[in-house]
Design brief:
Helix 5 runs antiparallel to helix 6, helix 12 runs antiparallel to helix 13 and helix 14 crosses helix 16. This protein has 685 residues and is mainly α. The protein has 21 helices and no strands. The termini are far apart.
Length: 685
Amino acid sequence: MQENERKLQQAEGGTEQISDNTKTPLEESPISEPKESDTAVAEQAEETKSENGSPPESNEETEKASPKEDSDEAIDEIDESNAEDAEDADNEKRHYIPMLDYHAMSMENLVGELQRLVKNEKVQAIHKHVSSIKYEFDQKFQEFLEHKKEEFVSKGGNEIDFRYNSVAKRQFNEVYGEYREKRDQYYKQLEQNLKSNLQKRLEIIEQLKGLIDVEEDINTTYKNFKELQENWKNAGPVPRANYNDVWRTYHHHMEIFYDFLHLNRELRDLDFKHNLEEKEKLVEKAEALADEPDLGKAFRELQTLHKIWKEDIGPVAKEKREEIWERFSNATKAMHQRRQEHFQELEKVYEKNLEKKQEIIEDIAKIAGSVADNHRGIQQQIREVEALRDAFFKAGKVPQKVNEETWGAFKEVVRKFNRNKNAFYKDQKKEQHKNLEKKRELLELAISLKDSDDWAAVTPQMKRIQSDWKKIGHVPRKYSDKIWNEFKNACNHYFDRLHAEKNEAHKEEYENFEKKNDCLNRLKAFQLRGDKKKDLASIKAFLDEWKQYGRIPYNKKHINGKFNKIIDALFKKVGVSKQESELLKYGNKVQELAKTEDNHAIGNERVFIRRKINDSKSEIRQLENNLQFFSDDSEDNPLVKEVINNINKQKETLQTWKEKLKKLNILENKLNREAEEDEDGSEEE
């Protein structure tokens, strides 16, 4: 079972035989942060570890590496990649599938990208992409889950009871399960084919080894040799773990065949010449790659040249072997050096990214250390932290050596903010429950008063209850709508009844308004006849009619002003002084007061008139005092004339108010006599 699992990992690319300093091209590298946790590895036991996408760390051993070691490292890197491709031609597609910045993606976008890859790409070509996506998704989901758990606990929940159903997680698991099913099915069949092909190639090697012991015509032997070469080309892919050993063994015995068999020298030299020409072409192409600006493309082409060198071209003459290989190896080493320099430049970029992320961590730490003490402030800080969090993920990779440390620092400051934020809301919950109790008391009071008919006493009380309700803060959200609706319904019930009562009382007032409006329209159309006595009688008739109508709605009071303005104009036309007209109109008000027989209203009117009398007297005294500042010879002064006119007007006004008071006194005496007569009549009975 363990052997099968090991071979399956080898088939998927899990058993890497590259040295520590060997790195994949940039477009092949998964994200460099953060490293997979033990949990993630346990969950992905069948998965392979992601290749490190950052350039190698500089150390003394690397700096002192010999040219031979550098060359071997470059060749091993090419051989390993070709071994992976050799299992299946579709493996090469991994070079052309973009490795996106999964670290900067949201969980939802990661799910979408995984769906796209599983649906549209060959399963054997997307292993590294899927591993990177799964790693990033697991990290983000774990952080998200911890955040939700802290919220749950802050609201009084027990951590052991915490459950969270994530749509994104469910979708991811479904797509990832589909990928694993396809992958397992593919590699199960592939493993059988690879084993079979390996056996075929081993048999061909054995047959090649046996050629040197066969006693037959040299031409026949050479023909058999060519047939074995053709069979080798068609034998199919083998497991990557066996790829290089099998090819080395094959080439070794091919060279033995050429070097030690007594072949026809002409045939051998012809083969050597052809192979040398083909290898020289490969060397020239490899050397030309130094000018290729696209490093990824250049590296892939170099891989192809190595594959052709190994799989399609036979040996050359012994004296040429080292020379031609040295040229090809040097071209490969030059490409390797270019890539190493490229990774060193990337390391500088990663250092700058690290500075950005450290600044972001510091900014979040400042917010976490000074969480606001109000809801609006915290909501603003939440938006700020979310923006910083997005910026952190978009800042790019950091050096691998500080990757785990940076990721841990980021998670810690975010958790600190969440803990402090949740502590505020936990305290706020206590306050909200106190507010809930206060509002419940007001609700009970409103319900107890909503059917009362004591409008005068209850109306101000209901208004006070509403005012007190507004002063109480928030209550827990799950109770907010319910208690508000109950309170609102109780208040609406009372005030709807109050308004209905008022509307009934106002009905008569609106009827009076309609009658007054009709009277006003007829007054507007009235024309004086020129007979003062008859015209005066007509005007008084309008006044008598007007005073017959009772109260009108408050918002319609302006109609009285219109009526009085027209009456004053008509009185003026018939020669009635303003004072007389005022007294005539006041007679209407006196009669209205007489109808009500309201002593309180009559008393208020007397207080009002006396205040007006006092105001007029005070104004006259002030004006007369002002005259004393002028000399006796200033009577023609316009200012003096104006003061004298104002004194005369105030005296007329004072006389008018005195006459009004007299009428009011007459009314009150009349009402008192009538009251006494009523009492006397009651006693006689």
